[in-house]
Specification:
The two termini are 39 Å apart. Helix 1 runs parallel beside helix 2. It is built from 14 helices and 19 strands. Helices cover 33% and strands 25% of the residues. It is elongated, with a radius of gyration of 25 Å. The strands form five sheets. The chain has an eight-stranded mixed β-sheet with strand order 12-11-8-13-16-17-18-19, sandwiched between helices. The protein folds into two domains: 176 residues, Rossmann fold, CATH 3.40.50; 209 residues, 3-Layer(aba) Sandwich (Rossmann fold), CATH 3.40.50.10300. It is α/β, with parallel strands linked by helices and 407 residues long. The structure holds cytidine-5'-monophosphate. The site of cytidine-5'-monophosphate (C5P) has 14 residues, from helix 11 and strand 16.
């Protein structure tokens, strides 16, 4: 659970998006966070404190005059306990108030009283598109950022008022992801990471083809982990059934040749290349433009194959990779003798780091176990969720990168 042990103050201000804050609260609790809900009086017009209390499992605070705190200083007590204050939804009015350092209700008091260097303030604005676009709101957002707040969003689309445009609060899952990202060590800040993921599909004719068993989950988890660690991430994805990841530039491809072209084009601007894709080794020598007909009677089509390019080996042999400007990481899915096979594959591919896993034990699953192999030796990462492993792997990769500016 990515928020285990974190104390989050979830602030709600007046807006119809309060109904989504209920679900957000649930997601935060499920991810292991202790959630203290603080609502403004306006928020309590949209959703009751009772609902938020039931979801957070804690009494909700609305007023700065609440006498439950022994010292009657809820704004101090609650903001000292917090690791972050997330205001979702953050109304235009509430942001205008924060900007001026006004503190006439409990939530704005807490935002002002929080120790800024230790307790982050994250704002998820929600409002009508005209209110969002208004120069006053835009000015406030710019200044709030400059004052150290992190502004999440906004989203775009249908609004409760019937209009369409910018100003929607981000979806609860998106806010959860951004909050989790906020707590990750920023070990890849300023780095550009290229990742290949998923299978490739090699057409035989317009309705048939050959492919590999790969869900793309490990590559997508790595893309998210690298982005959360501060990297600028480009994900070249074969045909997979996965959305996102958030904040990652995604290039969709189908065949090995498409993936090869996309990766080579992007590799020039990358500092790290992580090849997780299960690239088909061969493709039909020529894809038929019309569907091959079944004639029956034991008559079989004959197919001949040609070899696909080895994307990783080619990029690892490039000038930039050999000079150390591009750090290449390969994956090996084996069915047995993992260490020996993966060690040999690292040398064959010419990469500094190779990550082995037992293929059939991980295909399509949400967890995995990894064996990292580099010139220094091996490092085992026992069975864990692919997301947790991805975060650990990103940390290991970051340790191995050359320090910028040091030859
Ligand atoms: O040779 P093998 O397919 O086992 O190698 C696996 C590693 O090489 C993975 O990192 C995979 O993404 C990469 N690869 C590639 N292009 C290929 C075949 C594999 O980039 N044509």
């Amino acid at each position: 659970m990515d928020l285990n042990g974190k104390h989050i103050v979830l602030g709600l201000t007046g807006g119809v998006a309060c109904y989504k804050a209920a679900y957000l609260c649930r997601l935060l609790v499920k991810e292991g966070a202790e959630v203290q809900v603080v609502m403004t009086e306006a928020a309590a017009q949209f959703i009751t404190p009772v609902t938020m209390q039931a979801l957070s499992n804690r009494t909700v605070y609305v007023s700065q005059w609440d006498a439950r705190e022994p010292n009657n200083m809820a704004h101090i007590n609650l903001s000292r306990e917090a690791d972050a204050i997330l205001v979702a939804p953050a109304s235009a009015d509430f942001m205008a108030k924060l900007l001026h350092g006004r503190a006439d209700d409990l939530l704005s008091l807490m935002c002002l009283a929080r120790p800024v260097e230790r307790v982050a303030l994250l704002l998820a604005p929600a409002m009508n598109r005209e209110m969002w676009a208004h120069p006053a709101t835009q000015r406030n957002v710019t200044q709030l950022r400059a004052d150290g707040a992190q502004v999440l969003g906004v989203g775009e689309g249908d609004q409760a008022c019937g209009e369409t445009g910018d100003g929607r609060m981000l979806e609860p899952e998106e806010l959860l992801q951004d909050l989790i990202a906020h707590f990750q060590p920023q070990v890849l800040t300023g780095r550009r990471v290229l990742i290949s993921a998923g299978p490739t599909f090699e057409a035989i004719d317009p309705v048939r083809g050959i492919t590999n068993l790969s869900s793309g989950k490990m590559g997508f988890a790595l893309a998210r982990a690298a982005r959360d660690a501060g990297a600028q991430v480009t994900l070249v994805a074969g045909p997979v059934n996965l959305g996102g990841p958030r904040g990652v530039r995604r290039i969709n491809v189908r065949s090995a040749l498409d993936m090869d072209a996309a990766c080579r084009a992007q590799a020039d601007q990358a500092d790290v290349f992580i090849a997780t894709a299960a690239v088909a080794d061969w493709r039909p020598a020529s894809a038929k433009t019309q569907k091959i007909k079944k004639h029956g009677g034991g008559q079989l089509p004959s197919l001949s194959f040609v070899e696909n390019p080895d994307i990783l080996a080619a990029i690892a042999a490039s000038e930039r990779a050999r000079s150390g400007a591009l750090y290449c990481v390969g994956f090996a899915a084996e069915s047995q003798d993992l260490e020996a096979q993966a060690t040999a594959k690292r040398l064959r591919k010419g990469v500094p780091l190779l990550v082995g896993n037992i293929g059939p034990a991980t295909f399509g699953q949400d967890d995995n176990a990894l064996l990292l192999i580099d010139a220094q030796g091996t490092l085992e990462m026992p069975r864990n969720s692919k997301q947790a492993l991805a975060r650990m792997l990103v940390a290991e990769i970051a340790k191995r990168l050359p320090v910028p500016g040091v030859a």
